[in-house]
Amino acid sequence: MANVKRSPWLLHYDGSSCNGCDIEVLACLTPVYDAERLGVENTGDPMQADIFLITGGINEQNAPVVKQLYNQMPRPKVVVAVGTCACTGGVFKEAYNICGGADTAIPVDIYVPGCAARPQSIIDGIIKARDLFQKRSEEHDAKVKEEKKAGKHGSGSPAVSLQDAKEAAEEDGKEE
Amino acid sequence: MLYRVISILCYIILAPFLGGLLEGLDRKISARMQGRVGPPILQPFYDLIKLFKKQYIIVDRAQHFLLLSYLALVVFTGCMFFGGSDLLMCFFVLSTASVFLYFAAVITSSPYTTIGGQRELIQDMACEPALLFAALGFYLISGSFNIDTIVHSQYSAIAKLPGFFLAFVFILTIKMRKSPFDESASHHAHQELVKGITTEMGGRNLAIYNVTEWYETVLMLSVLALFIINENPWSYLAAALVICAAYFAEILIDNTAARVKTSTMLKMTWMVTLLSAGVNFLVLMLV
Fold first, then answer.
1. Can you tell me the mean pLDDT for B186-195?
2. Torsion sign across C-alpha atoms A118, A130, B197, B119
3. What would the pLDDT profile of A47-100 be if each residue is shown by its tens digit?
4. Which residues of B touch A38 (CB under 8 A)?
5. What is the three-state SS of B243-254?
6. Fewer CB within 10 Å of terminal CB in chain A, N or C?
7. 147-176 of A, contacting B, C-beta below 8 A
8. For residue A161, which residues of chain B lie inside 8 Å, CB to CB?
9. How distant is the Cα of A87 from the closest Cα of chain B, in angstroms?
10. Where are the alpha helices (DSSP H) in B176-233?
11. pLDDT grade, residue B116 (50/70/90)?
């Protein structure tokens, strides 16, 4: 079984945060904390990302953006909500434009609390996320193998168009 | 004949491992330069395995074919080089390969990859004079474009071609996608335009792109070795040392220089090519 957890690539998206958590997320990549020793890379590209890191609450304007980013990420994927705002909506919760935490838009797997979340706890969240990523990858492999056995696909893992991937991800979101 | 077949097979099988290992070392050394621990040396291979395991999302069906053509042409160039054929032809086939990469980028019609693709073309335009000059230099001193003849010359080419060597090392920064000339895509996290030319490449496609880059790096470093190697077997060791030194210099430049504009890159590379390789060329012709 391939050890995919050694290579978790991050996609960082700032919802409507005060930028406190964003600075802490970037601090994780600096020499003091150095998340790259875990194989972490800050990709900035949903097509290449494995772990989706959200900071800040979800508002009416960014909800579709977050959904789209999530849908563009290939499976297996893990979502981490960083900071109180991304977990619950935080101090902005009662504001007229805020829907709440990241889980109001997409299924969230790991919550990292804190205002702002400290780099130590963010790295802790990433480590939990990469273990989950490994588990999901194994499930994904098993599914691909099963489908191959059933003769659905000629060779390799199934290829899907971006539109199909989006629709499938939306159905997943509804189930969860 | 057998010797050629073995060296071609060695290139096809070993080049991706060597290229991946070099990138791993590159990331580790870069991290140490910045005072970080850095990822394991085998990290590029972990990334590659993961990319093959990910779900394969297609943006455009032609992209996969174009990337495979890019890979095939770069490997073919390497085979020509290690088979001891024409150096000039190698450079021509290599530039055809980068055209396939450009098409693979622009076919998705994403604005990020389109700009990345256009920058890739400008980068190729910046590299090409120095590459052609290098081929010309080898021809002037050995009387042939044939790599076998160049390798079996009596003295190292660098003795008569220091200017050509300098120009080649300068454009190596572009070919290896290092700062300050990493316009179209960057190996490291300091990206611009999201991921430039690789923005719409995910999973298996990005893996193919990475492997092709490793093949290309090994090929470019082998051309660098051509400046050193002569009929003396010890020159191979010297070539290996020069390659290590050049690679270290590239990492150092990558970590100390800020990215420049494409127009500045073009001006700088052409000036350096003209001044070092051009002057060297004139001296060879007149003296």
1. 64
2. positive
3. 889 999 999 999 999 999 999 999 999 988 999 999 999 999 889 888 898 988
4. 39
5. HHHHHHHHHHHH
6. N
7. 156-162, 165
8. 57-58
9. 26
10. 204-226
11. confident
Instruction: Transcribe B35-92 into DSSP letters.
Output: T-----TTHHHHHHHHHHHS-EEES-HHHHHHHHHHHHHHHHHHHHHHTT-BHHHHHH
List the single residue in B with minimal CA-CA distance to A160. Answer: B57
Compute the average pLDDT of residues B33-38.
89
Are B269 and B171 in contact, with CB atoms under 8 Å apart? Answer: yes
Alpha-carbon distance of B173 to B250, in angstroms, equals 6
Chain A / chain B CB contacts < 8 angstroms: 111
Domain range A4-138, CATH architecture: 3-Layer(aba) Sandwich (3.40)
Mutation for A interface: B23, B26, B34, B56, most A CBs within 10 A:
B56
Q: Using DSSP bridges, classify how beta strands A98-100 and A58-59 pair: parallel, antiparallel or unpaired.
A: antiparallel
Structural domain harbouring B43: 2-286
Q: Letter for the amino acid at B72?
A: A
Instruction: Say if the Cβ atoms of B35 and A31 lie within 8 Å.
Output: yes
Report chain A's mean pLDDT, rounded to a whole number.
85
Number of domains in chain B: 1
Q: At what angle do helices B162-175 and B111-142 cross, to 10 degrees?
A: 160
| Statement: residue A176 has pLDDT above 50 | no
Domain locations along chain A: 4-138
Q: Distance between CA B121 and CA B103 in Å, rounded?
A: 10
Contact B214, B19 (CB under 8 A): yes
Query: Which residues of chain A make contact with B34, given a CB cutoff of 8 A?
Result: 31
Q: What is the pTM of this model?
A: 0.90
User: Which of A2, A42, A157 lies nearest to residue B55, judging by beta carbons?
Assistant: A157
